[in-house]
Amino acid sequence: MQTELMGKRLELLSELVPRAGVIAHLINPTNPSAERRMRDVQEAARAKGVALSTLKAESESDIDAAFASLAQLQARALVVDPDPFFSSRREEIVALAARYAVPAIYGWREATTTGGLISYGANITSVYYQGGILVGKILKGAKPADLPVRQPTKFELVVNLKTAKALDLTVSPSILARADEVIE
Question: Are residues 137 and 72 in the same domain?
């Protein structure tokens, strides 16, 4: 579902930072879904009337270079692709977003609980619970090929107001009303 949620993340970020005429999208070009995700974010940016700059990073030095290029691109906000490579470096990415004072949205709540501004994605606890049910069925003899593929059904929006304050952003009541968790 991560690819399908990319447009929603851009919408939320553009609502949070309405004056961002340029939004950057940090993506790992080696991810098999990279092209589709780039297209989805580009379509959402067009619909919102904002310019989109794609920043490709497949190594730690690429991440540093991508953040360093934000000012040159005049990007006022950042969509961080929910790639496992970025997830494993979430603390570094959150710290870079703070250092460069760029509002960023993430696909995992853990980024927001470690200081990121906002996240929107599948509730991981629910996903693991569903996975456990499938494992239980397999252990009881069900054939994996006979089991239905399940997609997440529970999604969560998490907003970090401490980070918003540090970025001098006002979070709209509309976003706060939709948030599943607000970190103060």
Answer: no
- Predicted pLDDT of residue 1: 47
Tell me which residue range forms the domain holding 103: 6-122+155-183
**What are the distances in angstroms from CA 157 to CA 7, 76, 154, 177?**
14, 21, 10, 10
Tokens 């540093």 belong to 64
Tell me the backbone φ, ψ of residue 155, rounded to 5 degrees: -120, 155
Q: Check residue 2 and give its pLDDT.
A: 56
Burial class (CB in 10 A: 0-12, 13-18, 19+), 35: exposed
Residues of the chain with pLDDT under 50: 1
- Residue 91 belongs to a domain: yes
Counting the structural domains of the chain, the total is 2
* pLDDT tens digits for range 115-145: 999 999 877 777 777 888 889 989 999 998 9
Within this chain, do residues 55 and 36 fall inside the same structural domain, yes or no? Answer: yes
- Asked if residue 111 and residue 35 are part of one domain, the reply reads yes
Q: In whole angstroms, give the CA distance from residue 14 to residue 110.
A: 21
Does 25 share its domain with 78?
yes
Same domain, 130 and 116: no
The answer to pTM > 0.90 is no
Classify residue 113 as exposed, middle or buried by CB count within 10 Å of its CB (0-12, 13-18, 19+): middle
